Backbone:
């Protein structure tokens, strides 16, 4: 799960009757990233009957309970039982992000309602390693999306869009699992200058 709060800067590069091409940069001083925690319940049946539970700081692959049967022999003693892994709560990481490389293409720029495509690239720095230990606190980001921009006046509009957002460290740390999110974003824009 990803929650960002910030501001963006857009600057027109080219406009005609069909397209309004803009540079788009974003500064996100509040970037919150959340992962589910892994809870395990180990029901040991051999050599003694016992139950062990705990929470690990690793994100499970799925939140559907996964039951694994095991049976290993160590120094002549057989250890057997089942382990059930499930999601348990969430762990939040606080950070900040910036996407200085971005573009937006609005189509039919003379109309009040304009469909658009957008894309950005940048980084995210968090207070702890995400999404798993060993993955690093510094990650690269990119997103692509589409939406509609509705102009209320000549200089004010509301944008509603959906973005595919990716975070990974590009193998700059020991682990690089990456995080993919689908984001819904609503933006209120105010035009300044010409």
Residues:
């Amino acid at each position: 799960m990803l929650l960002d709060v910030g501001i963006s800067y857009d600057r027109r590069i080219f406009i005609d009757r069909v397209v309004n091409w803009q540079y788009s940069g974003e500064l996100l001083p509040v970037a919150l990233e959340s992962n589910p925690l892994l809870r395990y319940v180990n029901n040991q049946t051999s050599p003694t009957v016992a139950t062990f539970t705990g929470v690990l700081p690793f994100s499970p692959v799925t939140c559907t309970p996964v039951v694994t049967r095991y049976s290993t022999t160590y120094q002549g003693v057989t250890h057997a039982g089942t382990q059930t892994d499930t999601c348990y709560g969430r762990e939040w990481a606080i950070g900040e992000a910036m996407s200085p490389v971005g573009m937006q293409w609005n189509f039919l720029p003379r109309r009040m309602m304009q469909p658009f495509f957008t894309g950005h690239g940048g980084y995210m720095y968090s207070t702890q390693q995400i999404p798993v230990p060993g993955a690093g606190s510094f990650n690269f980001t990119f997103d692509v999306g589409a939406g509609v921009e509705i102009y209320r006046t000549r200089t004010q509009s509301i944008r509603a869009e959906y973005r595919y957002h990716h975070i990974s460290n590009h193998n700059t740390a020991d682990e690089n699992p990456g995080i993919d999110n689908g984001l819904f974003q609503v933006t209120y824009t105010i035009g300044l200058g010409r």
In short: The chain has a mean pLDDT of 91. The two ends are 38 Å apart (CA to CA). The longest strand covers residues 77-107. The chain has two domains: 2-35+91-190, 36-90.
